[in-house]
Amino acid sequence: MQVFVVYCHPSKKSFTHDMKQEFLKGLNDANHKFIVSDLYEMNFNEVMSEDEYEREAYYSTETPVADDVMEEQRKIQQSDAIVFIYPVFWTEAPAKLVGWFDRVWTSGFAYNPNPQMKILKKALFMVSAGKTMESLEETGESNAMRIVMLGDRIRNRALEKELIIFDGTTHWDEEQRNLRIAEHLLNAYQAGLNF
Questions:
Q1: Tell me, what's the pLDDT at 171?
Q2: For 93-140, what is each residue's pLDDT tens digit?
Q3: End-to-end Cα separation, the chain, in angstroms
Q4: pLDDT at 180
Q5: Cα(172)–Cα(156) distance, rounded to whole angstroms?
Q6: How many CB atoms are closer than 10 A to CB 93?
Q7: Residue 156 burial (CB < 10 Å; 0-12/13-18/19+)?
Q8: pLDDT exceeds cutoff 90 at 47
Q9: Contacts (Cβ under 8 Å, ≥6 apart) of 33
Q10: CA triplet 28, 70, 9: central angle to 5 degrees?
Q11: How many Cβ atoms sit within 10 Å of the Cβ of residue 135?
Q12: Residue 76: how many CB atoms within 10 A of its CB?
């Protein structure tokens, strides 16, 4: 498959960066082709302009979209699947990725009228979280993330959709973090290999 990976993390020294690298190794070993949009590296502008807002608010599909948005939409249209890799910040993706959705999921492309975005075979979210799954489930945060990402942002835009949380990576507990990271990196590789 042709896989479009949208990666969003400000540091190359992060577990999330290592997780992305392992996932890409798995994709490569499974002979998938992939392209990566590293939103921080490419300095993607996550801020919607007034013109962009008005285009979306009034469904003005005759108003052209910005070149950087067109490029991301082109990557989607040329892919079979999309993968989002990012850390959880306050139960949400980093602002840069939220802004990517705000700007790339345009009227006439991702939603009405007459959306032109292809229905992808798969959408996968791979997120790193400092909290443990027990904590995320107890507070309802894990379910909230699934509702937002799988329900709202993907909805029917992919035939299969999944969110995997790589939990317990906080620096508050380095011992737990180190134990989890080894397992998480193996799981990230397997996610790519079995994609």
A1: 85
A2: 999 999 999 999 999 999 998 999 999 999 999 999 999 999 999 999
A3: 9
A4: 92
A5: 38
A6: 24
A7: exposed
A8: yes
A9: 1, 2, 3
A10: 50
A11: 14
A12: 19
